[in-house]
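FORM 7B: Structural annotation worksheet

SECTION A. Query
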Amino acid sequence: MSFDILIVGIGGQGTILTSNIIGRACVIEGVSVRGAETHGMAQRGGSVETQIRIGQEFGPLIAPGTADLIISFDLMEAVRSCHYIGEKGKILTAREYVIPTSVFMQDYPPPDEHMLISGLGDRDVKIIDARRLAEEAGSILTQNIVLLGAASSCIPLRESSLLEAIRLTVPKKTVEINLKAFELGKNASICI
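SECTION B. Predicted structure
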């Protein structure tokens, strides 16, 4: 029985780093883990997703409608991937979103936050002001770790393993800021 996490975002938001931290925490605990990454047009602001299957010994891919948790660094990416969430799954997402260039190129009206939230339907969704918390931690670049901290109580790994994995994975000069970001995320008030 695996615990399946889909991590989604846009190129440069730390999707792959976050999945590496979760994978390393699994290794620390001696838990089997499988994963897969899809980069797409990541260098140009395109979608990036990683699939992490904790306790899985076979395939790395999550079937649509079966994910236990979606961690999204972009509200629009949460909408785009919400079909992956299982019946009892949770979606944890950042409040901010980037409007794709194609919207402007085709002269479509851009979506607003309310429209995107309604696109998530009646799923179990928690929205975090990750940008504000990352700034409070000392770097806007820690939004991914804020969201990891916010999701940590849902992930079947010890907090100490996740913290050790952060220490081992992020650049040495950013360890303290990332640990603070994790703590702020863990204690975040959910704002939906």
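SECTION C. Observations
The domain at 3-96+122-186 is CATH 3.40.920.10 (Pyruvate-ferredoxin Oxidoreductase; domain 3). The mean pLDDT is 89.

SECTION D. Sign-off
Analyst initials: ____
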